[in-house]
Fold this protein.
Amino acid sequence: MKTIIPSVEILDQINGEDIIKSIERYGRVCYKSEGRITADSARKFITNIIASGHESVIEHEKISVRIICDRGVSHEIVRHRIASYSQESTRYCNYSKDKFANELTFIKPCFWEENSEQYQTWKKIMCEIEKTYLQLIKEGAAPQEARSVLPNSLKTEIVVTMNLREWRHFFQLRTSKRAHPQMREIAVPLLKEFQTLIPIVFDDIIVEDLN
C-alpha cells in the first residue's frame, strides 16, 4: 500500500500574451472593431468583455491539465459537462501487476494528521481493501470484477480539457470554502498557476488560501 498527495500538471505550453491576443481577434469580430487592435489593446478588451458577461469569446481557447486525485474528487470533476476527460480505468488497470508495483495507491486525506485516530482507522481499512483486491485477483477475478471493493480514496489520474470559460466556472465553484477540502487541495494551487500564466482572464477570481 502506498499513500501520496494529489497533484496537478498543466500539459499545454501556455503563452498568455498569445492567448489574449487571439481572443481579442476572435472577439472583435462581434463588433467589427478589428481596426482598433493595437500592440497593447488585448488586455483592456478582455477585461471589458469579462466584466460585461460576454464570456463566450474566451471559449475559443482551451487548456489541458493532468490531475492526480482520489476517485471521489474525480467524480465531482467530471460533473463539469463542457469538457473532455481521459481517466485511468479500474476496468483495465490490474494493480497486482509489476507496473503498479503490485500494490494499490491511495490519496492521503488532507483533513487528518497521520498520528490521529481517524487517520489510523482509515489506513487500516485501506490496507484491508488492498489485501482483499489482490486476493480476488489471485483467485481469478478480472480487474473489472475486483474493482467492486475499491474505495473513493483510490488514486486516479485524469486529463481534463476545458475552454477558458469553463475553467473560470470550475474555479469559481471548486475553490470556494464550501467545496470539498480535497477538491480545494487541487483547485486552489491550479488557479494560482492559471493566474500567473493568463492573469487577465483569471485574476478577478478571489480565493482564500488553503490554510
